[in-house]
Amino acid sequence: MPRPPIRRLHIIPDLPEELAPLWELAHNLWWTWNQDALRLFKRIDAAMWTASERNPLRFLSSLDQQHLTQLAEDQRLAQMVRLIVSQFEFYLTRPSWFSQTVEDAGLQVAYFSAEFGLSESLRIYSGGLGVLAGDHLKAASDLGVPICGVGLLYRQGYFHQVIRPDGRQEERYPQNALEYLPVRPATDASGAPILVEVPYPHGPVRARVWTTHVGRVPLYLLDTDLDANAPEDRDITARLYEPEPRKRIRQEILLGIGGLRALTALGIQPTVCHMNEGHSAFLALERIRTLMVTGGLSFAAAREATAAGNVFTTHTPVPAGNDEFAAELVREHLEPLRAELGVSMDELLALGRADPQARDSRFSMTVLALRLSERANGVSQLHGQVSRRMWSCLWPQLDADEVPIFSITNGVHLQSWASLEMADLFDRYVGHGWRYPSRHGDVWERVHQIPDEELWATHQLRRQRLIFYARRRLREQLAAQGFSPARIELSLRDLNPQALTIGFARRFTDYKRAYLLFHQPERLAALFRDPTRPLQVFFSGKAHPQDEPGKQQIRDIAALAQQEPFAGHVFFLQDYDLNVARYLVQGCDVWLNTPRRPQEASGTSGMKAALNGGLNVSVVDGWWDEACAMHSGWTIGGGEENGDPRYQDEVDAAALYDLLESEVVPLFYQRDAAGLPRRWIERMKETIATLAPVFNTDRMVREYVEQAYLPNHRRYVQLQADLGRCTRLAEWKARLASAWSQVRIEAVSSAAPTSLRVGMQVPVEATVWLGELQPEEVRVELYTGRLNAQHQIEKARVQPLEHVAAAADGRHLYRGNYACLQPGTHGLTVRVLPYHPDAGDPLRLGLVCWAASG
């Protein structure tokens, strides 16, 4: 009878000297985007590397000692190890873009995210948000940006998906084997493990800090699975995205408050905290509390000083994607912190409510982050517009276009997502500069120099590998569902490495419309019945455990995949993860994206496919709203937004079938005498050459540095150098709040002639009553633009009016000129905004006095 151990012993392999560097290298995730390192692991034992799920620590531990000894005698292998180590050392020490171009010293960014998708060997991610966070850190490492990541070390991570025989998704939560994770305990100067305490209603909870590295960038992860904690507290970091609200808010307190305390314990004082979605927004309150203690400031003054150093990125326009908690739950969990902040609970709750006076409303983490961050952005140009409309309720006096949320479009880390074979092609014909485009200019036009035969052969190989991989995965998947060997082989018989292959892989939820391809089954069936133009479609993705509509979509597609006429043409690959994603984006010919516009914030899987020559067929949403203008794929519809979802599904499905029937399928099978689809290959090249240099994380992180990190850092340092300025700013805002109601625009006059022509100047004069405020405390602006059909000003242009006189009775006169720059019907009005040199963007104050219309 097996007996439980009284003690666990983890024994690491005794690697020969020639291979020993691999153990250390495995603890830095730089290997995930180094082609030589990946080839080395495969060369040692390809089957074992696959079986280890590309986990170097598990892989090296699985090799027996005799095999290791034999490997050490392989001189070529030993030389490869030395080469990779030298590459790694050079990577860590070479001059970076940041060190060569940025003069500001002292910038330290802390990037907080609930998930990081870096490698299958560190399963602390669920999907696009985490993969984006992982790619962000990788690019920051390439660029040399002084940044560290902060997250949670989940012992079970996100669930593993199993599809039952009836198509139902089953969630399984195996325990991550800590000994095979590329993490180590963070320690202090004496070598003792770093522990932090985080306040909860029932008392403090202790968390251990772990560290791993992503190239030059450290990533710190908190874990509460400690013997000193109660069982329910140990479970705080059990699973990613706990659906139960009490567990979820405790995770987010740990991430935000605990994460900031961990940095303090590590001796790291960030000047900029970047919140990747609202899960970590409690960190803004902890920054305020800390400065109140260390600087002796009031809550209001500390808020001004710390908000200057906060950047917030919102990722979803879907309400369900923005975490909210019941007021009572927040009241219970934030009471320990509230007492230290010295504010009432009503004041604290108001920070997370769109309407601060609505005491029955829920507490929004997004609203909290927007209120306590000086800079906020969406993740595509369209998403920025959607976010400004969505959160305009926080700035009701502003036009939606002026809501202070800007855009930085997402990208993908090129070296992580280009297939090994495609990377080789790029090296030969584009040059190594494609790996770090910030330092080598635009090299991507050289893609057109790749011979058609080589590009097509490379893509054919990737598609063949996808089919081989899918066949193996599907055999295991169908066998586990109870299918007989004969039925399995029959199901997989038509898998064709030469067929046009479409991929659809993402989170399964209603707005992403995985079902759209099946909207008119007879039209899809007709495409599958053509024996001369074979077509196959791969689906993959998980639905959130609480998302029943998303689960139903999986059931429907899994069922269709076993029914005629779709059997043998439609396949669902279970347990979507980074590895499945790689095979799909690197091997599919077409990447399908069918969200209901405008609910896709960005989407990055299509960028990954494009990098590998895959052509996008997508609704005009997210990143494709920008990319489709480059004419490198196909667009479904014309960007309509219909209020009737069923009608919109009809319209978009019809447009999708039209594209497949008349353009996509015919073009793929249009071959020349050499058997090459020349026009398809031309589109592949155009896709890579136009999209890769734009939709990458190198460009994205540089924009974060230039447009967010550095401006926020400079203001934060400026305010920290003189905390008295923060007190004065807070006092000014308090006075402004009471005095603003006195401000009014009494008269606006413009001596405009009856007939206006382009180039003319129209004098404008405004009389403004400021009450208790002084002219230097406001800006009076001319607000002009073309009128739309509703006679409203669109795409406004703003210019200041000059203060020219002050009357004894408190009235002030302002003048300026309106330049007639374009023909058409235009509108003009005047507004007053508050102004303070330390207040940053005056629009964030949300106080505007408009001239009365009519």
Summarize the structure.
With 854 residues, this protein is α/β, with parallel strands linked by helices.
Please describe what this structure looks like.
- There is one protein chain.
- The chain is an alpha/beta fold.
- The protein folds into four domains: 21-93, no CATH class; 104-410 and 710-720, Glycogen Phosphorylase B (Rossmann fold, 3-Layer(aba) Sandwich); 445-693, Glycogen Phosphorylase B (Rossmann fold, 3-Layer(aba) Sandwich); 734-850, Immunoglobulin-like.
- Helix content is 39%, strand content 18%.
- It is built from 29 helices and 30 strands.
- Strands 1, 4, 7, 8, 9, 10, 11, 12, 15 and 16 form a ten-stranded mixed β-sheet that branches. It has a six-stranded parallel β-sheet with strand order 19-18-17-20-21-22, sandwiched between helices. A four-stranded antiparallel β-sheet has the order 23-24-28-27, with no helix packed on it.
- A hairpin with a 5-residue loop joins β5 and β6 (169-172).
- α2 (35-44) runs antiparallel to α6 (75-93) and α23 (578-587) packs across α24.
- The longest helix is centred in the middle third of the chain and has 29 residues, at 452-480.
- It is globular.
- The chain starts with 20 loop residues before the first helix and ends with a strand.
